[in-house]
UniProtKB/TrEMBL annotation:
GO-annotated cellular components: plasma membrane
GO BP term (any one): lipopolysaccharide biosynthetic process
Residue span(s) of domain EamA: 18-135
Name this protein carries in UniProt: Multidrug resistance protein
Family annotation (Pfam families): EamA (PF00892)
Source species taxonomy: Bacteria, Bacillati, Chloroflexota, Caldilineae, Caldilineales
Length: 139
């Protein structure tokens, strides 16, 4: 039995939908991981990377449960990213990674009371527009 062009398009659309889902999970896991890392580092305090303080600093960082959790989320996001890359072109997938800018801008403002300037906001809107345009292009 031959595969019709309609069936091929339907299959390709399904692959794209799954890949975009993987990309979004990757972006969200990575962003939550970064937020968790930031919170963990805010509990740890400012660190130095001098050779004299290296071992105590690393111990302080890697015994912090928020750092461990943040790194774990980041690794999980990477697994989903790899699954997406196995399905679509890198030139299609990679711009979606910039959605993390939108998530991080919002989270930084809401969770850490960081100042969001009009220029940062405008830049984020441009990123969102770019992702929209690329998503319309297919793979």
């Amino acid at each position: 039995m031959e595969t019709t062009s309609t069936e091929m398009l339907s299959g390709r659309k399904r692959i794209m939908t799954i890949a975009i889902g993987y990309i979004l999970v990757s972006v969200i896991a990575g962003a939550i991981g970064q937020i968790t890392l930031k919170y963990g580092m805010s509990l740890t305090g400012q660190i130095t990377l001098s050779l004299h303080d290296l071992v105590p600093t690393l111990w302080k960082i890697f015994t912090n449960p928020f750092i461990i959790g943040g790194l774990t989320l980041y690794v999980c996001g990477t697994v989903f990213w790899l699954a997406a890359l196995s399905r679509v072109d890198l030139s299609f997938a990679y711009p979606f990674a910039s959605l993390s800018y939108v998530v991080m801008l919002t989270a930084s403002w809401l969770l850490f009371n960081e100042n969001i300037t009009p220029l940062r906001l405008a830049g984020t809107l441009v990123v969102m527009l770019g992702v929209f345009l690329i998503s319309r292009s297919g793979s």
